[in-house]
Every structure is written in structure tokens, then in C-alpha cells.
Amino acid sequence: MKYLPYVLRHLLRNRVRTLSTLFGMALCIFLICTLRTVLGAMDASLRSARPDRLVARHAVSVVFPLPDAYRSRIAAIPGIKRVSESIWFGGLPGSGSSQDFANFFANFAVEPEPYFAMYPEYAVSPDQWVAFLADRRGAIIGKDLADKFGWSLGSTFQLTSFIPTYQTGRPFEFVVRGIFHPDPVRYPGTNEMQMLFRFDYFAEATQRRAGVGMFYLQVDDPARAAEVSKLVDDGFENSDVQTKTESEAVYRQSFTALAGNLVLLLNAIGLAVAFTVLLVTANTMSMAVRERRTEIAVLKTIGFSSGRVMALILIESAVLAACAGGLGVGLASVLVSNINRIPGGGAVGQFGGALQLSGGLAAGMLGFTVLLGCAAGMVPALGAYKARIVDTLRAA
Amino acid sequence: MALPFTYNVRNLIVRWRVTVLAVGAIALVTAVLVVLMAMANGFRTALRATGSTENAVLTQRGSNSELTSAISFDNARAVMVDDRVRRDEVGSPIASPEVIVVALLPRKDGPLVNVSVRGVTSSAFQVRQGVRITAGRSFTPGLNELIVGVRAADRYAGLEVGSTVRLQRRDWLVVGIFEANGGGFESELWGDFNVLAAAFQRRGGYQSVTLRLQSPENVLAFNEQLSKDPRMRVQLVQERKYYDDQSSQVSLQLLGLAAFVAVVMGIGAVFGAMNTMYGIVAARTREIGTLRALGFSRWSILLAFVIESTLLALVGGVLGCLLAVPANGMSSAAGGANFAEVSFAFRITSPAVITGLVLAVSIGFFGGLLPAWRASMVPVAAALRT
Predict the structure, then answer these.
(1) Which helix (H) or strand (E) segment is A216 a member of?
(2) How many other CB atoms are found less than 10 A from the CB of residue A28?
(3) B24, B282, B341 member nearest A279 (Cβ)
């Protein structure tokens, strides 16, 4: 610790160089953090899935509806605790004529009682719940969504679906009756950029022509989930419309898999960026050391061991990296927590997970940056370690 | 008087050890940008090559993908017999009614993914002249046979000629492989319209009809007239525009990502370049003093260092483009409009390379500006004394 002032003094000696290295590194760390957060959100959407929840949908594709009549047949299957009809509504704010995809958010019609019983993460306070049950146009929305549009309890808004079958000639009207904001520790990765509304309202407005998009199922025993989903699919094997029932995690994965090799690409970019940080820092450190060769020789002359001189340089590099890491992580957390306010930023959230810079990631990135700093300082530090006093003093 | 250009080149060569790290950083930044642009480009090309400017696609009014569209036989027939649709030698309209479904197939690397399956009639090959069978033969109408696009055959397991695929409780024999000028159809499976429509319960209408028009430029007027007809619930769009629109969201997202990454990394690299140049300037203070004493003006010193920095960055940029080259032709896939995968090849095009080089050169230019300014401000006497 007593060498810290010495290290800091050195860093402040050439402010321009220190600052430009700091900013260069910070920007790269910021980039890696942001990319990792997006990847994390994709993962989180899978982590928030629970093993006792299943999704049954049309065997060919989610875009085709299942008949209403399937509800009672599914509910009668032994091992099934709850069933909720659901529709991915595809509603866009406003009248829908302009197809305003920039403001897109996920909205689902669900059956209130069974659905909220199987998804406790979307629970609202008892008085909000009563108000929701009392109002057919009621909607329950996530806190992030409420913040984005400035909606509060009682706000009204309109949505029009971009799917022709769900269009009724005029927009659907909704009233905010509940806002959910679950405990992030208990329910990690909950997507708060979505809206849930009542299936009966949807079914009546479309005169039950639209069918059911998918059935959410809850099983008594998660261990028997695979068995139960096979029972469901077998039951409709010889019907006109077959179902495909899978666990919630697998169902969600089929959407993130659509993002293709993006995950691989983002990881590759992260690696390239990290390597850039290494190069930039290594450059700075070798310049800094070259500049004070005489000084290093003097340190050694007055009795500093080679190891200590080397450690001083490594510490200097690590301190610089730690500052840059802190700045980068800070920048990233500011961007990530405001992403829904940025035009088009909502597209990032469409993968379903909540975007959140986790403490673990932040700490990990800081550690990683310090490690990078040490690695970058290694070559010049070794040079200083090996330097012979006589040669260095003479050269200067 | 300006310093000779060879002075800059020689400086970089003599002091290559100092510059190699900065060049490496700029090369990586350029490589990342070029690869991302190649990806966006490949996706757009795949869908663009799908559509021809001579054809028009008829879908349900308001639908945004073929999968969610449904057209009644009446509506489709009324449009197909219109005078504005071109006819073949025997006088029947050149029009391809189609049905699109999605099937889950295993990718070669494991996961089950959605793949488009298109039911077509023989006129599909008349309308889309780019489609050619490259192995095996075409399907026989009335039988459970499929032909497979080259990209699909490449990407999904068990789609070789002669193998069978199980869809909708039936076995389908793969009888041929086809190419479609690199377009999105190459990610699809094609079979007979009637057989597929029956197997997937898509009877009672078409999902899309692709038409060859007499005069393709009149497609807007034709659509205008259709939209005014109360019996018609259809829309007509030029085929190329139709597939372009479908790709625009995904390719815009990819380009957005490319821009974000490039800007952030680019600014980071500017700081890196600045650092290197400051180091170079500091190491050469005496030399600069000498040059000034010889009579070179402040401006020529400034110019010389900016040129040097730009040159250094250009080397990095070229290196970065070379680094990106192996990505060319790499195969990837992204979600298309039908909730199905569209696979495509990364395409490094000249605009991508030029953008990469421009980025590199700007990094060098802006990174070199301040250090060059400092160099030009060096007091002659003091510099000579160091």
C-alpha cells in the first residue's frame, strides 16, 4: 500500500496518455459488458422457465391456432393441475395503420385465474387484482413497460394487432389495472416489458373466430412433465389438428434459436474487443516504461529488488485497468437500465428476458479487466526486471 | 514546403516495433465491422435474390408474411385471369399458387428448428426461372415427394436424395436438390401443392400467388385497383420488394449492431492511436526541432504526422480486411418472417470493405490530429537541446 502514491504519481505524470488509455479501455469494457448483458437476457428468459410449466401449441407452427374445444380435453388429462388459454396478440400501440414496430412490446391474452396462479412472478397487489377481475378491458403490465410509456394505474391505451385474424376493424381498448414488479432475487430474469390481458375480452371481440394460440399447462409433479406432455400430444394424434407440447424452457429456446448464430458472433466480437484492450494497454505500458528506464535503474541502484520494480509496474498497469473497468462497467449499467427509453432499444428485449447488468457480471468484468491490465504490463515489467543497471544508466 | 511522403513511410518501417500494437488494434476493429456488415449483407442478399422485379406476390391484405396470409380461390382466380397477368404459349396465366407451412427439423448440429415447406405446382418453375434441379429429379405431383434447397440440404440432417423425412405422420421421399440463385428458397423444402395442402390441413385457399406481370412497372396501379374492390381481400406487391421488406427488420438490426460496435470500438481505437502517436512525437522531439531548424514550417510538420498516423491506420485497416476474409462464405441463419430459419452465406462486398477502410483511416486521422498539433508546436531551440 505504501507504494500507491508512487504508482499514482506515475500515472498522473503523463495525463494525456493515461486518460486516453483509460477511455479507450473503458469503451471496450463497456462494449463487452453490453454484449454479455444481451446474451445474459437470452439465457435469463430460459432460466425464468419452471419445470412444472408446459406449453401446448399447434404441431406445425405457433402461428396456427388450436380449437377452443381442446381446453376441456387437456384439463381432463390426469396429472394436469391448471390450463390457461393464451394468444400472442401482436398488438401495436395506436390504430395500427402505420405498423409502429419501434414501440413494439409483447402482449398476451390469458385466462386470469389459472394463468396468474401458475405464474406467481406476475402477481399484483390484492386490490389491483380485484380491479383487474372487475374490468374486462383490464390489463396487467410490467414495471418497465409502465415506465417506458408513462402509464400508471387507470391509464387507458389502444392496441391493434398486426395479425389479420385478430383485427376487428377498430383498436382494442385497455385500462391499466395492475403493475407487476417481482423480487429479482426470487424471480430472476422476469420480463417486465410485457402486458397481459383477459382472454374473454379477446375472444368476445373476435367472436371466437381466432381459436387459441397456445395452452399454458401446469403439472402436479414436475418429474412427470415429459410423460404428461406425451399424453397430451397422443390424445390429439388422430385429430385434424395435432399439438406439440413441450416444457416452457424448450418452448422459449425455439425462439431464441431463431436468433441463429448471433450468440456465437457476439461472443467472437467480445473476444476481439478484449484483445484490442490488451493491445492498447500493452502499448501504453511499454511506452511508459521505456520513458523511465533511467529511473528504473536508479530504483535498482538504491536497493529495490528486481522483483519489486517489476511488481510496481504491474501494479501501475492493474490500477489503470481497474479504473477503466470501473468506468466501462458504470457506463454499461447506465445504458442497460435505460435501454427501453432508447428508440429501437425495445427490440433487444424481445427475446423475452429482462435486461439487467448483474452484480456478478460487473464484478467478473472488473476482475477480467485487472487481469488484462496485468497481462498487458507483463512484457514491459519483465523488461524492467531483466534490465541491468549499468547498461540502462549508460544508455540514458 | 511539405515533407516528402517517403519520410513518413520510412519512419513507420524503421520504428515498426512501436506501431505494431496500434496497427493490431485497428486491424481488429476493422475486422469486426467488416464481418458484421458481411452478415447483414448476406442476409439481405439471400432474401433479395429470392424476388424478381418481373413478378408480383399476391397475399392477404394486411398480412406481413406468407405464413399468416390466406387467399380464397375466388379472389386468386379473379386476379390470375386479369389481362395484366402475362400468359404462356397456350394462353394460361403465368401464376404460381402456393401454400407455406413450417416443419420442425433437426439441424446438423443438434437443435430442432423451424424450416419452411412450400407446396407448389409445376407453374412455380415457370414463374421462378432461377430455380434449377441440381441433383435427382423434381417431385411427382400426387406423391409424397419433396425437393430440397441446397442450403437446407447442407444445414439440416437427413435431407439427402433418397432419404425420407417424417412430417404430419407421413413419410416423404427426398427426390431432388435445387438451387435458386442463392435466394431464400434454397433454405426451403418444396413439394406438390395438393399433397402438402391436404397433409397440413391447409385446404380451402392459397397462401400466396406469385404472378408474372405484362408490365411490371404497373404493379402499384394494379394493387390500388384491387384495394378499392370490396370483393377483394388481397394485396399485390412486387416480388423483390416483398422479400426485401421481410428482410429489412433483421438486416437493420444487424446493421444497427454493426454500427454500435464499430462506433464504440472505433472511439476506443482513436484513443489507442492517439497514445501511440504521442509516444512517437515525444521520442522524436529532437528530430522535429532539426526539421524546423532546416526550415520546414509548422504546417508541414503537422501534415507529416497526420499522414503518418493515417498511413499506420490504413495498414491496420487492410490487415483487418484480410483478417475478415475467412468469414466470407461462412454459413449462418437468422429468423425469417415465417418463424422459420433462412440460412445465408456471409458476403464481404466492396461497400463493406470500403466502410472498414474508411473507419480505419478516420481512426488514424483523428487519433493523429492532436499529437501532430503538439509536434508542430514544439519550440525549436528547446527541442534541439533535448
Answers:
(1) strand A214-219
(2) 33
(3) B24
Q: Is ipTM strictly over 0.85?
A: no
Residue of A nearest to B66 (CA): A63
> Which of B68, B208, B235, B255 has the highest number of chain A CBs within 10 A, making it the mutation to test binding with A?
B68
* Chain B interface, best mutation among A20, A46, A97, by max B CB count within 10 A: A20
Closest CB to A279 among B18, B25, B32? B25
The pLDDT value given to residue A219 = 92
Cβ(A95)–Cβ(A236) below 8 Å: no
Task: Quote helix, strand, coil % in chain A, to nearest 5.
Answer: 60, 15, 25
Element (H or E) spanning B105, and its range?
strand B95-106
- Contact present, A195 and A105 (Cβ < 8 Å): yes
Angle between helix A15-47 and helix B239-283 axes, rounded to 10 deg? 150
DSSP B245-271: HHHHHHHHHHHHHHHHHHHHHHHHHHH
Stretch B107-114: mean pLDDT:
77
Residue A347: the pLDDT is 52
Which residue among B21, B334, B341 places its CB closest to the CB of A283? Answer: B21
Do A20 and B60 make contact, defined as CB atoms within 8 angstroms?
no
How far apart are the C-alpha atoms of B230 and B252, rounded to whole Å? 35
Question: Which residue of B69, B268, B341 is in closest CB contact with A28?
Answer: B268
pLDDT surpasses 80 at A230: yes
Task: Give the other-Cβ count within 10 Å of B265's Cβ.
Answer: 27
Which residue in chain B is spatially nearest to A343 when comparing CA positions? B256
Q: What is the pLDDT of residue B145?
A: 95
Distance from CA of A83 to the nearest CA of B (A): 25
Distance CA B89, CA A384 (A): 86
Task: Give the pairing type, strands B95-106 and B208-212.
Answer: antiparallel
Measured CA to CA, the distance from residue B115 to residue A265 in angstroms comes to: 22
The whole-number average pLDDT for the span B44-56 is 83
Chain B residues close to A237, C-beta within 8 Å: 169
What's chain B's length in residues? 386
What is residue B112's predicted lDDT score, i.e. its pLDDT? 74
**Model pTM?**
0.75
* Closest residue, chain A, to B61 (C-alpha): A164
Those residues whose C-beta lies under 8 Å from the C-beta of residue B142, and which sit 6 or more positions away, are B192, B194, B195
Q: By the 8 A CB rule, do B330 and B42 touch? A: no
Question: pLDDT tens digit string along A116-134?
Answer: 999 998 999 999 999 999 9
Q: What's phi and psi for A65, nearest 5 deg?
A: -80, 160
> Which of the four pLDDT bands, split at 50, 70 and 90, describes residue A179?
very high
Task: Inspect the interface and report whether the beta carbons of A60 and B101 lie closer than 8 Å.
Answer: yes
CB A227, CB A38: distance < 8 Å: no
| Contact assignment for B67 to A164 by CB distance below 8 Å | no
